[in-house]
Amino acid sequence: MLKRFSITILLCMAWASTMFAQGVCGHPKAERMLMRMAEVEIEGFFCDSVMAEYPIYTDGEHAELDAVLVKTKDGVVWYLKENENEEVSYEKYSEKDVKLFKQLENIKPDKIYLLPNEPQFFIAEKDGKKQKVSVK
Fold first, then answer.
1. Which residues, at least 6 apart from 105, have a Cβ–Cβ distance to it below 8 Å?
2. What's the rounded Cα separation, in Å, for the pair 63 and 90?
3. pTM (predicted TM-score)
4. Surface-to-core class of residue 47, CB atoms within 10 Å of its CB (0-12 exposed, 13-18 middle, 19+ buried)
5. Kind plus residue range of the DSSP H or E element containing 127
6. With contact defined as beta carbons under 8 Å apart, do 69 and 53 qualify?
7. Residues 75-134: tens digit of each pLDDT
8. Angle at 134 between CA 129 and CA 136, to 5 degrees
9. What span, in angstroms and rounded, lies between the C-alpha atoms of 2 and 42?
């Protein structure tokens, strides 16, 4: 009886740790919250239609999410950012107008860091390795 109970506990712990490691929904919490806020506030934006998203940070420590660049199934690219009033500000582009997104699709980074002093470049981080990429 005790053996069966301990095995059950170990299996539950292993299952729970993999859920937290992978993320239950697939998106980190801050991204998920920003996209849900956008779904409520922006007409025509639906979380279910998101095909790819890239978190954007301005600090190298990625302590706080600054924005999310999102591509939806209908070919629209959304730049979502939470403003001071805790509302979502956004910009909407067609996919062909966003050269940056084409570069991101090729690299498929885990995180993007914007460089405030060099707006023509960004840092793309993939698997812990960072590389400087030109926006143009």
1. 52
2. 21
3. 0.66
4. middle
5. none
6. yes
7. 888 888 887 777 788 888 876 667 777 788 888 888 888 877 887 788 888 888 888 888
8. 150
9. 54
